[in-house]
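In this section we walk through a basic example: taking a raw amino acid sequence and producing a predicted 3D structure, encoded as discrete structure tokens. The instruction is simple. Fold the sequence below.
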Amino acid sequence: MSYGWWVGKHNRHHSHPNHEGRDPDISVGAVAFTSGQARARRGLARVLARYQAYLFFPMLLGEAVHLRAASVRALLGGTAKRTPSETVLLLTHVTSYLSALLLLLSPLRAAVFLIVQQGLLGVYLGCAFAPNHKGMPILSEEDELDFLRRQVLTSRNVRGGRLVDFALGGLNYQIEHHLFPSMPRPSLRHAQPLVRAFCQEHGLPYCEEMLIRSYGAALRHLQTVATPPRPTVVNQPSSG
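The resulting token sequence is shown next.
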């Protein structure tokens, strides 16, 4: 990916997590994160939004390609920092990657490997990103929160021990990561008891779930925002 594009995007997310209109991670895209986004869709996009909770994990197969495409658009548009050097690096990466595949495999096997590897990479990245904020409160311009509440109320930690720590790369300590974004990953685990105790002392909800339940919360949120509200039935007075 483009490092400059990712840092800029991720910094905007950290400044305004789950803030509609400000957080690029919940901007309009393949998935609708708010009821307003779902209602605004038309045609096939609206049908996909209706069933997005069921399609979420299959759609992650394209996440790696999406990130690479966004990087290319940023470089072509000149919105990423160090555009010339990053362009050379990305071209070198793509050329080396494809050359290695074609040298070691037949064209058909190289194509199959490329599709499978990129698809699994997208699923892995999506599974690491999804538990962190999906299903947590979404803020609007009317919500005036200080830094502490803005970061804690919109983030979710994932329990599961060292295996989850390894699989999610420290992103399972999302609350601590958002409060201290420059803290080294190995230190997040040690900061967690202090942060949890501080939140409890000040009556601040500290959301922490097992991995499967965090996925369930994310999928329930996607289903809720995509389900059209039922029309209100008004009982007419009888004429008798």
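Looking at the output, two observations stand out. DSSP finds twelve helices and two strands in the chain. The longest helix spans residues 107-133. In the next section we compare this with other chains.
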